[in-house]
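[audit] Reproducing an earlier prediction to check determinism. Same input, same settings, fresh worker. If the tokens differ from the archived copy the diff job will pick it up downstream; this log only records the rerun itself.
[audit] input (339 residues):
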Amino acid sequence: MTLDTTEAYPHLLEQISATYTQGRAGAMQAVNTRLIETYWLIGRHIVEFEQSGKSRAEYGKALIDTLAVDLGLRLGKGFSRSNLIRIRQFYLAYPIGATLSHLLSWSHVIEFLKIDDPLERSFYEQQCGQEHWSVRELKRQKDSALFLRLAASKDKAGILQLARQGQMIAQPADVLREPYVFEFLKIPEPYRVSETQLETHLCDHLQQFLLELGKGFTFVGRQYRITLNNTHYKVDLVFYHRILRCFVLIDLKINEVQHHDIGQMNLYLGYFANEENIEGDNPPIGIILSRNKDELLVEYATYQLNSQLFVQKYQLYLPDREALRHELEQTLRDAEERE
């Protein structure tokens, strides 16, 4: 019997491979953490030099350019003028220390530094640490104005909590955002797809769709069939939420939601609660995603219905960031006037 056919050898091979992979990942994280700490210290050196006396303050106008040349000659790459500007900005943005998650890279930090508002910047820091976003995912969420969308429906206390802790999921309403943004589908103007086509596009871009839905969603299936009295119904999309421990049912509407759409979703929720849930599952959540919605109709159509049924808007293009920001600032101003 040869060595590679014994029962023990494959286990040894797996052990070594796993140990090496974990060690390499740990080494990269350690190097990355140390690099960020080093950049923070360099930023402090630059700022302290600039602030030490009038002569140095005057010299400071050309300091970055001079440093870029001299450090480039002495230390090589990594000290371009643009990077030195970011390093200086990094220290000014975090003067008490580089306290970011050790899972974040310098590329993450650069994206944070592009955000002027401290509340918004803090939110993205928290979400990156919690959800392990790549730099690409972070850029996408910034471009889609995730913080502004989540903050738009909150009061001042909720906005401040969102900035300090990120999006905390403890109840069904916490998974919602409005509008949902599906710009990753790249559906051109004018909007002319059917509900089936929209569903297909979302399933074809499932990774991006899950990112937009948020943390905790796992895909169960599409066109999920349920049968009542020999009548077949199909839920467009079914997910399971790992944190809330419940099914999440999503129906897509390309036109305005009607009262019978709400009644149908309520039927789905009743079926899943009684037929699909197992021990330990919480009541299901239903979300009807619509291009438009009549708020008054939704209010009356959901009167005394399942409290876990929601009607939310979606759009295929990036939201108007300035309009969302204005709404956020108005909420904060109104709260300050009442205090």
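[audit] rerun output stored. Observation attached for the diff report: The chain has a mean pLDDT of 89.
[audit] end
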